[in-house]
Automatic annotation (TrEMBL):
Coiled coil: none annotated. It is an enzyme of class 2 (transferase). The keyword Ribosomal protein does not apply. InterPro entries: Ins_P5_2-kin (IPR009286), IP5_2-K_N_lobe (IPR043001). This is Inositol-pentakisphosphate 2-kinase. Keywords: ATP-binding, Kinase, Nucleotide-binding, Transferase. GO terms for cellular component: nucleus. PANTHER family: INOSITOL POLYPHOSPHATE KINASE 1, INOSITOL-PENTAKISPHOSPHATE 2-KINASE.
Length: 421
């Protein structure tokens, strides 16, 4: 296994980041292992980093007044220092993709993933150096909340899908279906079966002052109807421009570099000869999205892995009067995928539906990278979700639906799902 320190931190240029990971492009000297790759590192919350640094400072200046680290921490209003955890050089990202995801999505539409060894005494300094180096390039709102996970790093080497001479667009398509009315409560049924989850969530976010892609409905993007797909891309573009590139649902990379809306003229002349950047990009993306199977596959997986809706899952959970269970192991996921592919399980099997919902969430939260003029579409960020989030998703779902129920009926968005019509 290649090691992080086979390269220098300066060989990696900041590319972009999401909620859980931060990505760098290899820009070092030609090297058959690293050429054409990106480095994907796990992020950790800043509070913890700050806390542990504070712990170190406070604990190193301790006096005899405090009987233990815990007493000292309590005095300073800190949570007790975490016990040392066994070093875990790997999370199951690579195995999860190989054993589960690749059985559900044709591998031609997935990036190659491989671990990069991040163990050893010098890794810490290497990562600290990279973290300091990339800080000025990160969005301010991200810098305030998290950073590269240094204590327990996870480093994955992946295919660089945005480099090269063309244009790459990263789209986060989100939920591609309306729930079946069968398991919805009387309070939410009328709302949730007409307006899609993304559009309702966008409304809630907008009421909280966030910039959201108002003109974008995922059901348009997934519809397979050319004019609706075009409408979806137009909505994503407009949100990208209006938010000055802040929205996470649309990112544009030209010749390997993420561009801001102010640099949109660099799009012109690469994929076609249209003079308007928006027209040029949408015209180039449209034929790829109309022919690739990735959107259809994603929507099908999301829908069939979430047949109950979170409300139905919560009802099943209450009925079973049993815990949701521990985090699924890789073996459990593998067995689940076999059961799913062979036609599912009994409707009352709580654990089956927990795993199905988690996997559905993975497909609701991934991104698609479309390259033009190459004409490829690849799905990225297919990470396993934690079972601990199920309860929060249920609360959020309730909040979203209740907020939308307050919108007068005549003003509610009607989202059209092609399946079930
Ligand atoms: Zn919608």
């Amino acid at each position: 296994m290649p090691h992080l320190i086979d390269t220098a931190p300066t060989d990696w240029a900041y590319l972009s980041e999401g909620g859980a990971t931060i990505v760098f492009t290899y820009t070092g000297a030609p090297n058959p292992v690293f050429d054409g790759t990106v480095l994907r590192l796990r992020k950790g919350p800043l509070e913890l980093d700050g806390d542990s640094r504070l712990h170190d400072r406070v604990l190193s200046s301790r006096t005899k007044v405090f009987a233990s680290d815990e007493d000292l921490a309590a005095y300073y209003g800190l949570s007790p220092p975490p016990p040392p955890r066994p070093h875990s050089p790997e999370d199951p990202t690579v195995e999860f993709q190989r054993e589960c995801i690749a059985r559900l999505i044709p591998p031609a539409h997935l990036p190659n993933l491989a671990y990069l060894d991040a163990t050893g005494p010098t890794t810490h300094v290497w990562l600290e150096t990279l973290a300091a180096q990339c800080e000025p390039h990160r969005p301010p709102e991200r810098r305030r909340t998290d950073g590269i996970e240094i204590a327990e790093p996870t480093s994955v080497l992946a295919t660089d899908l945005v480099g090269g001479e063309g244009i790459a667009v990263e789209i986060k398509p989100k939920w591609g279906f309306l729930p079946s009315p069968m398991y919805l409560s009387d309070h939410t049924r009328a709302v949730k079966t007409r307006t899609c989850r993304f559009c309702m969530h966008a409304h809630l976010k907008a009421t909280k002052g966030e910039t959201v892609p108002r003109g974008y409905c995922p059901l348009d993007l997934y519809s397979g109807d050319e004019s609706r797909v075009k409408q979806a891309l137009s909505g994503l573009w407009d949100a990208w421009v209006e938010s000055d590139g802040i929205v996470n649902s649309f990112r544009v990379f030209v010749r390997g570099k993420k561009i801001r809306p102010a640099e949109k003229s660099t799009i012109v002349g690469i994929a076609n000869d249209l003079a308007d950047p928006k027209e040029a990009l949408i015209s180039a993306l449209l034929p790829v999205l109309m022919t690739t199977p990735v959107l259809r596959t994603l929507a099908h997986l999301q829908r069939t892995l979430d047949p109950l809706d979170i409300e139905g899952l919560a009802a099943l959970h209450a009925q079973a009067d049993a815990p949701l269970g521990p985090e699924p192991t890789l073996d459990e996921y593998t067995a689940f995928v076999s059961a799913y592919l062979s036609g599912g399980a009994s409707p009352a099997d709580l654990r089956y539906h927990v795993l199905a919902y988690l996997l559905s969430a993975t497909f609701k939260d991934c991104s698609v990278i479309v390259r033009v003029p190459d004409g490829t579409a690849t799905i990225i960020d297919l990470d396993a979700k934690s079972v601990e989030r199920v309860r929060k998703w249920h609360e959020l779902d309730w909040e979203i639906a209740c907020a939308y129920a307050l919108v007068p009926e005549g003003e509610r968005k009607m989202c059209v799902d092609v399946v079930g019509q």
